[in-house]
Design goal:
By secondary structure, the protein is an alpha+beta fold. The protein contains 9 helices and 26 strands. An 8-stranded mixed beta sheet has the order 2-1-5-6-16-15-13-10, with helices on one face. Strands 17, 19, 20, 23 and 24 form a 5-stranded antiparallel beta sheet that branches. It has a 5-stranded mixed beta sheet with strand order 18-26-25-21-22, with no helix packed on it. Helix 3 (45-53) crosses helix 8 (272-283). The longest helix has 19 residues, at 411-429.
């Protein structure tokens, strides 16, 4: 290839490569989809098409393909992983349980779709994420009061649920009017894991059992403790979606009409498509992803950042916070962002004021304690990626020539000292009194 053609190719590809690998774009664009059968690609095409129309590049592979791999030359080839292979006992290639956990630990996102035939491998992956599926392999979620009237087969395993998590950042600001259809296995959340949340819960009348056998023992999962769909946001801001029903993503339930038992309202279309479209936006960081830039501080009235502060200085702190909207960074507006001036414990805790254009700021006085302090912002809010900012700064005491000559708190002592001096002077220079006259002795005659 001639040099002009090489230069032309570089100039053409460089902007594309920069955009693809730019850390400024948090949207995960390359996603590996592992399926049991390629028929899922067509039976769940509406869900996949919603991802592709938003710019995601989906790579479909059979879960037991011996050539599949998440990494190449030590770098991850994908930023997202979708496991629509509930029956897989062992992945092909170099993918296994530790590889998937390392994938998430590296900050990448994961979607798991299970069903009543979920294998031990899928259950182990979910368990590592803080979710415990019902141990009975034949169990399904049954609800005799909140089942779907339309298309029900009589065992009440097709559930119409509308118990959503109340969070606009996770499910979008537009309310989901129609119930979501669910048919699959329930799971519970590990109480020791504070990072996992229920997004779609079962009703109080639901329970998990084998619908084809008579119930002889009390079910292990009952009521609202059953989670149908759960999410996890790891401490590294990786996001995970776990669903106990793979059919929830199917075209059949996306297009199905729904009428909840006991309700006279029949919806022409279930809420599944809206539910998973909005939820996938959150999982792949198209919503709720924050970044902080231009963190700075200075003395009041100055522009440059000092190397250290002196006790009792007045200072200003600034930080800009933006949220990714799916296409661009927009100013993040909130009234609960705080900064700490920290040394072993917070000496100052201040709410940051916002100008509603992304800039947060505050003013405060340096405490009368010297040492090495930190400006700390630790912002954790439901549905949003966490912000952890830290900036170290030393604080020194007054120098010997910086103290006030007369300290107001010592005025009483100054007054006492001057009073003593005045009293001493008045006694020293006052005239001495004349000596007392002694009486004369009487003279006696001989």
């Amino acid at each position: 290839m001639s040099r002009p053609l090489i230069l032309f190719a570089l100039l053409f590809l460089l902007p594309i490569l920069c955009r693809s690998f730019s850390p400024e774009n948090p949207g995960n664009r390359r996603v590996l989809v592992l399926v049991d059968d390629f028929a899922i690609k067509s039976s769940h095409s509406i869900f996949f098409r919603s991802l592709q129309t938003r710019g995601f590049e989906l790579d479909f592979k059979l879960a037991d393909d011996p050539k599949i791999s998440l990494q190449r030359y030590g770098q991850y080839s994908y930023e997202g992983l979708i496991l629509f292979s509930p029956t897989i006992e062992r992945f092909g290639g170099s993918i296994d349980l530790p590889a998937i956990l390392d994938f998430v630990d590296s900050g990448n996102d994961l979607i798991i779709g299970a069903d009543a035939s979920a294998s031990e491998l899928i259950r182990e992956i979910a368990n590592e994420c803080g979710v415990d599926f019902d141990e009975d392999p034949a169990a399904m979620v049954i609800d005799h009061t909140s089942y779907a009237v339309v298309n029900t087969d009589g065992d009440h395993t097709l559930i119409a649920s509308d118990d959503f998590i109340q969070s606009d950042v996770i499910l979008g600001s537009k309310k989901i009017e129609a119930p979501v259809l669910f048919q699959g296995i329930g799971h519970s959340l590990n109480p020791a894991n504070s990072l996992v949340l229920k997004v779609l819960s079962a009703s109080p009348s639901a329970y998990s059992a084998n619908p084809k056998s008579k119930l002889s023992d009390p079910p292990s999962l009952t009521g609202s403790a059953i989670s149908l769909v759960s999410i996890v946001q790891a401490r590294n801001n990786a996001r995970i979606l776990i669903s106990g029903s793979l059919s929830m993503f199917s075209n059949r339930l996306f297009r199905s009409s729904v009428q909840k038992a006991g309700s006279s309202i029949k919806h022409e279309k279930s809420g599944n498509e809206q539910f998973f479209t909005e939820l996938s936006k959150w999982v792949f960081h198209e919503r709720g992803h924050l970044k902080a830039v231009n963190v700075r501080h200075n003395k009041v009235g100055e522009a440059n950042e000092p190397a250290m502060y002196r006790i009792n200085d007045d200072l200003e702190y600034f930080v800009e916070v933006y949220e990714w909207s799916g296409t661009s960074w927009e100013p993040y507006v909130a009234d609960d962002v705080q900064v700490q001036f920290y040394m072993m414990s917070p000496y100052v805790l201040k709410n940051l004021r916002t100008d509603k254009k992304g800039l947060y700021s505050t003013r405060f006085k340096v405490p009368d304690v010297y040492g090495v302090f930190q400006f700390k912002v630790e912002y954790q809010k439901l549905g949003y990626t966490g912000l952890t900012l830290s900036k170290q700064i030393p604080v020194r005491p007054f120098r010997h020539n910086e103290y006030e000559r007369f300290i107001p708190a010592a005025y009483p002592y100054y007054g006492a000292a001057f009073s003593m001096v005045r009293l001493w002077l008045s006694l020293s220079f006052s005239p001495s009194p004349p000596p007392p006259l002694l009486p004369k002795k009487p003279q006696t005659s001989v």
